[in-house]
Amino acid sequence: MVLGLTRLSTVGATVADSTVGSSVLNRVVSASLLSDIFVMPSDSSSRACVFRPALFVALLVSSLLLGGCFSTRGPRQTERSSSVVSYLYPDQANPLPPTSIPVLRLPLRVGIAFVPGKSDISEQQKTVLLERVAAEFKGRDYIQSIELVPSTYLRAGGGFANLNQVRALLGVDVIALVAYDQVQFTSNNLLSLSYWTIVGAYIFSGNKNDTQTLMEAAVYDIPSRHLLFRAPGASRVEAGVAAAYVQQRLRADSTAGFNAATTELIANLKLQLESFRERVKNAPGEVRIEHRPGYTGGGSLGAGFASILGLLLLARAGARHRV
Amino acid sequence: MKTPTAAPAHAQPFPWASVCVIAFTLGVAAQPALAPTLLYERLALMRGEYWRFWTGHFVHFGSSHLYWNLAIFAVASIWSERLAPDRTRLLLVAAPGLIGLALYGLEPALTTYGGLSGVATAMLVFLAYTQLARLAAAPAGTQKNEPSAPSPTSDRWFWRAVLALILLKVGAEFALQQPFFARFAPAGIRAVPLAHLIGVLVATVMHRNLRGFSPRNLPRRTG
Fold first, then answer.
1. In this structure, what CATH number is given to the domain that contains residue A100?
2. Which of A66, A169, B138, B165 has the most crowded Cβ, counting Cβ within 10 A?
3. Which residues of chain A neighbour B192 with C-beta distances below 8 Å?
4. Residue A8: which of A43, A44, A42, A33 has the closest Cα?
5. Ranges of each domain in chain B
6. What is the CATH number of domain B16-136+151-212?
7. Contact across the interface for A305 and B111, Cβ inside 8 Å
8. What predicted TM-score, i.e. pTM, was given to this entire model?
9. Could you read off the pLDDT tens digit of each residue along chain B, which spans 223 residues?
């Protein structure tokens, strides 16, 4: 009996610690109360103890209430983010603006990387998202190659010194740094009252998850340290979920949020890329364009050649007809 | 009991190799995401991506570039494969790789290349040689009663004119350093007459040295 009650109090304490965090309830289920339930007699030779039912019932009700409201707590928030500014200008309150004009040597060799930050996004998830962004750059005649830069190549607060190392290592001139800020909120609705039944925590969607994601790709010319252009993407994912599946759903919402934000980012990236091309054409002093030695060539026979061949074929058919 | 009917002697084989190449070219055009992986790129070749010697020819820089190259290739290759199937198929395998290798060795400034015209030129030249050889070998008088038979008197001038036209085009491109009879849709792409010249040479070598070529004549392992 004593062992059973001790277990009960341990569970109650664990629930109280892990959920509400209410100091009152914690105090209720404290070790000192156990000694109040079972009042030890003053005679130490006797091993029997006096059971106090009223206090036991109070503790039981408290534990049940705790169990019922283990997820009827207030809103919670999870945040994962990375910042281009923190990465490029660590410990610099007033970074100096770049002075030289960026020189882009076409076709460009582009790197693309996630800015290091406080995150729990897996490397696999990052690679999938980067590949989607990279696909947007591919197939353009002014881009020679695109390298996905692994997270291990970038260190937090590495700045342009780190980017220069990446440039030397991978041979990229321009890098697209992808930063993100994702905040997840979890709150309760009326259905969370059903959690009092324990089973309700598995059935009724008494929790509401709200996932807000902001992504941004900032494209830098590494040698001149110039920001060439940037493109943002945002998303909001809302979902109702039962208490037992909150964490699972939050992870799924996080992935869905990143995917949706990346889709918008890609759409904006297209627009910004075209806008940048126009800007370069209209304001040649802003960015200098040079061409690398070597050229792109194509073999073409063309409409003119095909037409002459067609005429020859017609003449041949006519000659055969006469024969 | 039925006896199998023998195929007529003049039956021409289905040009499956040409059809495969045409389908592949159209497939690459329909999936632009494949282009960066298939294009002839000097740096990528130096990294060991040797398939680009072959596949670069099937990537095009625009719809006009694709359609005219493919139109001439389709006619020349299908016609040629029906006349000389084994040698045409060998040429379809060898020509892209040989042209790619020649560009790599002889044109170091060429960083990126795409287009089927080198292979199409090879097919056209090979077809012209094959037709001229058939005309030279055909006995006089057989052509009048047989529609599929060559007609020496009316056709010889045509195939010679085709060869002359190709040589004129390649010579003019070398002299003018720009595509002759053709324009590229994207700006900044230059003509590569060397690809056409190599195509002519590959077809010539193939025609002169492999007249009796057939996989059936190759020595086989026994035991």
1. 3.30.160.150
2. A66
3. 297-299
4. A33
5. 16-136+151-212
6. 1.20.1540.10
7. no
8. 0.49
9. 444 444 454 567 889 999 999 999 999 999 888 888 899 988 889 888 999 999 999 999 888 888 889 999 999 999 999 998 999 999 999 999 999 999 999 988 888 899 999 999 999 999 999 999 888 877 655 544 454 555 555 688 889 999 999 999 888 888 876 555 555 555 567 778 899 999 999 999 988 887 766 666 655 555 4
